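help with this.
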Amino acid sequence: MDHNGDPSVPRASFRKFLEQLSGAGKAIGVLTSGGDAQGMNAAVRAVVRMGIYTGAKVYFIYEGYQGMVDGGNNIVEANWESVSSILQVGGTIIGSARCKAFRTREGRLKAAHNLVQLGITNLCVIGGDGSLTGANIFRGEWSTLLEELARDGKISKEDVQKYGHLNIVGMVGSIDNDFCGTDMTIGTDSALHRIIEVVDAIMTTAQSHQRTFVLEVMGRHCGYLALVSALACGADWVFLPESPPEEGWQETMCFKLSENRARKKRLNIIIVSEGAIDTQNKPITSEQIRELVVKQLGYDTRVTILGHVQRGGTPSAFDRILASRMGVEAVVALLQATPETPACVVSLNGNQAVRLPLMECVQMTQGVQKAMDERRFSNAVQLRGRSFEGNLNIYKQLAIKKPDSQITKSGFNVAVINVGAPAAGMNAAVRSAVRVGISEGHKMFAIYDGFEGFAKGQIKEIGWSDVGGWTGQGGSILGTKRILPAKYLEDIAAQMRTHSINALLIIGGFEGYLGLLELSAARGKHEEFCVPMVMVPATVSNNVPGSDFSIGADTALNTITDTCDRIKQSASGTKRRVFIIETMGGYCGYLANMGALAAGADAAYIFEEPFDIRDLQSNVEHLTEKMKTCIQRGLVIRNENCNENYTTDFIYQLYSEEGKGVFDCRKNVLGHMQQGGAPSPFDRNFGTKISARAMQWITGKLKEAQGKGRKFVNDDSVCVLGICQRNLLFQPVAELKEKTDFEHRIPKEQWWLKLRPLMKILAKYKASYEVSDMSQLEHVHTGPEEPAAI
């Protein structure tokens, strides 16, 4: 057992890891360039710490390329403490500037000279496509720049040999999410948080006065923010640069707004991307839209331009975790690079970090702009990637109700039920299911209060406008209970007969999964259960087998992260304090582990990784060492069920005793605040998309069997729909049984455990990080399977 670092890593494997990935004798420069984005600091922190951890020297390059050209005290060596307390800060602490000089060869010559003097031949560039293209040009010219410097006598011949090659790895920091090849760029999720906060606030005032609001969001060339925020708040209309409205949109839009008012909707929200255009490439401005609505409909209409608010504020939990993963992966990529490796970008695909050739992504990104300039709009939407196209189609299906005359009635009745504990985003999922179902011709029924309500007959038909405004509501409007169906099977079957229910959609947590198993097992006795049944995972614990993510976990994670930020701040006045924070999750350590990564905790105790008193001792010693530096506070996160004897109180008392005279302790149990609150943009979106997909599956199953009069008895008609690595998959519950630990209510294998070492490395423990599975460059992916991007 190695008490110097993390006890779970024997010395030998750690040594092997460092040999594989030694940064000794290497120097890495990190810079942020172009527009700033929340989460850039988390990326900088990860690059610095991972670099130092592998034995490399890491240098801050201040003010982007400008600092590289100017040199001097713009390029400074960083140490472990230089990136302390920046995880929760928006923007970038090393500054960013647009730089004209770097666009010229003379500028790049100066930059090369400044880097060679410090021996920096590895660059990590965090910025948009312009910054990354610049880096690639620099890399291409590097050897000729060095030869020129040697000719001018500025560097020696040996230097030309020694520093003959420049490695470049990019990370995309851009709130617009306008970079092809990655599902999410650093900053996008946080920008969506800012937009949704504003929309939620505006909705309450608009409701009071029956107003129409035109909201302008950022995105000069990319409509991602506008589209996703429209999807997340159920906007009446959205204007995007990639998908301009058809000719005569003015009448269509005004008709749609007046129709919504006639349905008793007291407000209208119109979202406009700042780069919105019509089919002739002429700009559509917010002011134009306002004038149109006032002139045609006479509604009280206001314009709100969000502007730079979207770039500001603290990064969301998603962005912190994304940036930390990308930063570590970028260092690994730099240390593994050879002169033959092309410059790469570290990006996200589903929930996996991948490396893509930088120029391939840049060319694709520029291809979208070209398609828009040439008015090939459907092409532009396709090039943006499958998740963009999916978002657009779902938005259209949910926002615009077709007239009844245009909907072919299917003759099927589909019921929706919430099961388990409430989770933020459940209502968005119900709304989406109801509207997709109606647009596919089904009659939709809502079941109130879980399986108990089902047995008592609390079932009502639910219409299109009944679910209006549900996306932003927390908790469960239908009501939800943890009660399982086993003891009510007779009654539930009778209710399904009475209401002739042809399919069932369950939105819930582990109880929903158990309920689905029980209904499936009862098919032999009750033929009413021989219908398609699908479950969409919704629980803060994220412990449902068959999915890497569940609705509600992101909202809970943001609550934990925000609380930890505040708690850390409270310690800034009183030095030398350690906080012990207890999170929910049952036996699943997802919230504790990811919360620790997002909040920059020193340790996270979880059930999945057993620990003993020696580990607790080693953590106390680690914190005692930390108190000798300038970072005089600690944060320890404990999952509520990580160990029955090492309770939160026990750990608090142990730390208090062992830390006497060095630090004092406080404890905090976060409790049910993790289940409440308005859903985060991620959960609204995820709930909306995954639930729409579940309804499409139900429609497909019902249509297949139509007229054949056969019952659904196969395993593949009872499924859980979830994200697995990079794809959306329907998995039969019969197959998932093998993968479940029923005693502890968790899946036997959990993807996020791979991120454990990441948290430890960033907290200065010795740990081995798996580097093998993604050292290969991939190509920008456009395959046939379903993308899992949110």
Remarks:
- The chain has four domains: 22-185+315-370, 188-308, 401-541+686-742, 553-675.
- The two ends are 42 Å apart (CA to CA).
